[in-house]
Amino acid sequence: MVIANMTSENFPYQSKFINILNSKIHYIDENNCDDTSQVTFICVHGNPSSSYIWRNIISFLLPKGRVIAMDLVGFGKSDKPNIDYRVLTHSNYFDEFINELNLNNIIFVLHDWGTTLGLSYARKNSEKIKGVAFMEGIIRPKKWDFGNPFVRLIFRLFRTPIVGKLMIINGNFFVERILLSIGQKRKLTKTEKNYYRQPFLKKQNRKPIYVFPNEIPINGKPKDVYKMVNKNHEWLKTSDVPKLLLWIKTGVLIKPNHVQEMKNDYKNIEVEYVGESSHYLQEDFPTEIGQSIVNWNQRINRKQKYEQ
What secondary structure, in 3-state letters, does 192-242 show? Predict the structure, then answer.
């Protein structure tokens, strides 16, 4: 078992690969044992990050169970095949990854598009899910009211075919500006920046980053992603699976008014404020996030023992 420093720039975990739908998917798998009752934390990133974003949160989870952090297809150290990279395609790879590893007793730790993928799997496989913790994710269909005016302008440009491709594929704008410059409050180190840059140094590898902004279900489009996200939203209202929302001030996807709505609408949910950050809050508040998840897990365990 490896315990990382709380603010380490290093990723001290052994890489593993598994073949999923003819592509190698990179992941780390720590503290795996033969105990079938062991909880498995599955950390899922979004755009344009990777399992690296969880490096300082994993250390909190390791004493409590098995920890898996994967790179979505096209991201991190996973293969970058010539596919469409739409959300439903990612979902096929993601679901197959979990099924291939035969994972049960799952606690999802989700961010950004990872939230959409994790909730979709949880909705379809509730019997395998012990809990869902999520932050800054696409939880419900949206209108053009998310983020601030600057963010909305940028995403409108991303969704303009010619301009969007020039910005993201030619200019690597999503990595250099959104993630590395304004994505968090603290200044990332050179090592951290280089780690995030590495998967997308070549233009031909940036297609996944370009597709994701065009998949956000805004005003009902794309229809298939809207349907998927709306089903997740309805599942959160009715499912008894324990849920934890971690939220921040000045977030992009989840605002304070959304937090109150979720507290009112979603079943068996706890809500914790983390601090003031931007979208990639794991880089600003790994200790707060990690400890909140651990404490919530302990409350889940106590409640389940009491009910037995």
Answer: HHHHHHHHHCCHHHCHHHHHHHHHCCECCECHHHHHHHHHHHHHHHHCCCC
